[in-house]
Amino acid sequence: MTEQKEYKSDTVTFTIERKPECIAEYKVKSSPELVQKARKSAIRSVSKEVSLPGFRKGRAPDHLIVKKFAEPLEERWQKAIADETFRECQKLAHTPLLGEDARISFNVDKHSLDEGAELTYTFETEPLVPEIDLTNIELEEVKRETVDAKKMEETLHDIQMFFCEWEKVSDRGIKEGDHGVIDVDIIETEPPQKALTNARFQVDKKKMAKWMHDLIIGMKIGEAKEGISEPDPDASKEEKKATPPKKVRLTLRSVENPKLPPIDDALAQKLGTKNEKEMRENLEKLLNKQADEHAQREYREQINNYLVEAYHFDLPKSLLQKETQFRIKQLVADPAFQQKMMGMNEEERKAAIKDIETQGEKAVRLFYISRHIIQEHKIPVSPSEVHQEVKTPLEAMFSDQSDVYNAKEQSQEQKAIAMSRLILSKAEDFLISKAKIVPPKGKKKAAPKKTAAKKKAAPKKKAAPKKKTTKSS
């Protein structure tokens, strides 16, 4: 539905019509005085650029400029009318353009020195974000992970794994508990498609998909076996649908087992702490901070879904296109995404692009909502808050690398993305602080999805990243 509003001053009378996709249209009548002023401006502009016999540039009489350069003068006159009229309109309407380089289309329908001019402008505007009702927000309570002795020991073990030395095993076949370095190729395509290369997995029924565990037990180094990659029998319907069976070839490259360093002062010093005691104290603080962040992240996801579903408003088409193009460009730079796209049929590719567009629209919508909240409630946001360099290797293990950068090295584009992320998180946290927290609605959480290797579930921010990480298809 379009909206119209009328404005009037001594120089212009116009209406604004807001159309879908954040398009604004001005229909304007300009006064004769404005048109006459624009005419004089156009004559001066042309005069400075042309030469006439007997006159220096800019000194030729107006009547000669009009006579000799009628066509360029007419073009310059209409442009001057349009520029001056639009400035006068904006003084009254203050319609926010979509960026400083927004394209403004105009048409001078008619113009004369005696009667003035009539013009039509069309341009994209900033979205009109509705007010957010703070009294109507409900969020389901999120259970925070407990940081206990078991969690501490599991994390310390991950840290040991990070610093471990790998001892090769060559005199026997691989068995339960060993770590194998493997390749997996999808062989139902020609040529075969690489799914995993030099990927290290622990041979464990609880940590590997059944098909892989069945194939690998007893294999010798250099041996290859063919089988069917498929979800486990207890996988959800969604997982089975998302990962249909594929013919694969598994090749065992090496068998090796970790030699873990002791948990002592020497290990602590590698992590940037003085001794084991300080390492444990700092680790407990980081784990608690991480648990808080994970809980807050779940609340943020809830608030984002609520905002997108509850508050609908138009978005500029060009902005959505730019966001989609940016996301596709980022994904195409990822070799794993390229490989994934190559394995898709036409319908799957269209669905993937549609998903990118949907995610892009959600991001743009949330950006404008969050910016509106920050401005409306005067929430302070400082550029210094996005500059979060870590101080020790232990802190680095818990940091989100997308938020860590060197201020001198970061590009303007990356800084802008980091600032947008900060604005969003501050707005989210403000809304969470105003929300009513209610008990969960009793939905049973789906079992965590298994990867091809059924790797052990890990939090989004890994406590101790392994030296070599891999992705399974």
From TrEMBL:
Coiled-coil residues are none
Q: Where is the composition biased (Basic residues)?
A: 441-473
Protein name, entry field: Trigger factor
Q: Where in the cell is it found?
A: Cytoplasm
Q: Which reaction does it catalyse?
A: [protein]-peptidylproline (omega=180) = [protein]-peptidylproline (omega=0)
**Record's InterPro entries?**
PPIase_dom_sf (IPR046357), Trig_fac (IPR005215), Trigger_fac_C (IPR008880), Trigger_fac_C_sf (IPR037041), Trigger_fac_ribosome-bd_bac (IPR008881), Trigger_fac_ribosome-bd_sf (IPR036611), Trigger_fact/SurA_dom_sf (IPR027304)
Q: Name one GO molecular function term.
A: peptidyl-prolyl cis-trans isomerase activity
According to its UniProt record, the EC number is 5.2.1.8
User: Where is each Trigger factor C-terminal domain found?
Assistant: 277-431
Region Disordered: start-end pairs? 226-245, 438-473
